[in-house]
Amino acid sequence: MIVCNAHFQQYMKIYNACFYEMRKALDIEPYNFLNDYEQISEKSKDIFLFVCEEEIIGSVACYGTEIDDLIVNKKFQNKGYGKQLLLWGINYIRQSSNESVSLHVAKWNEKALKLYEKVGFNIINTDIVR
């Protein structure tokens, strides 16, 4: 399922909850970045939701060969859904491209970094953002 206007309010709450602590720690304002469907409307066809009984468990965005904004609803974290979403995203991208799959992650997000390395991603570049 892709993000549409009907799911946006729920998606926005989960998205902001997942990135709030990192954005605050890195002083990236606004801390609650997502607040209007227009911010993602053009990209929404590439944002895939994992939904069970109308509740969003998580989502992953696949832009070309890049995985972005992999999020898991806080109440479903630490149950393997992040890994499932990551593997789904990798397979989705590989179906349409022979190129390597890439992603970006803040060093601050150690949990995500460990997951990405565990499934085979290698750090090839680091940038200082803040």
Description of the structure:
The chain has 130 residues and is α+β, with helices and mostly antiparallel strands. Helices cover 33% and strands 18% of the residues. The protein has a single domain (5-118), classed as 3-Layer(aba) Sandwich (Aminopeptidase), CATH 3.40.630. The chain is built from three helices and four strands, in the order αβββαβα. Strands 1-2-3-4 form a four-stranded mixed beta sheet. It is globular. It starts with 7 loop residues before the first helix and ends in a 12-residue tail after the last helix. The mean pLDDT is 93.
What is the chain-wise order of helices and strands? Answer: HEEEHEH
- Average predicted local confidence, pLDDT: 93
Form type = globular
Low-confidence region ranges: none
- Radius of gyration, taken over Cα atoms and rounded to an integer in Å: 14 Å
Q: What is the oligomer described by this structure? A: single chain
Distance between the termini: 34 Å
Strand content: 15-25%
How many DSSP E strands? Answer: 4
Highest CATH level, the class = Alpha Beta
Helix coverage percent: 25-40%
Question: Which superfamily, in CATH terms, is the homologous superfamily?
Answer: Gcn5-related N-acetyltransferase (GNAT)
The largest pleated sheet is described as: 4 strands, mixed
CATH-defined topology? Aminopeptidase
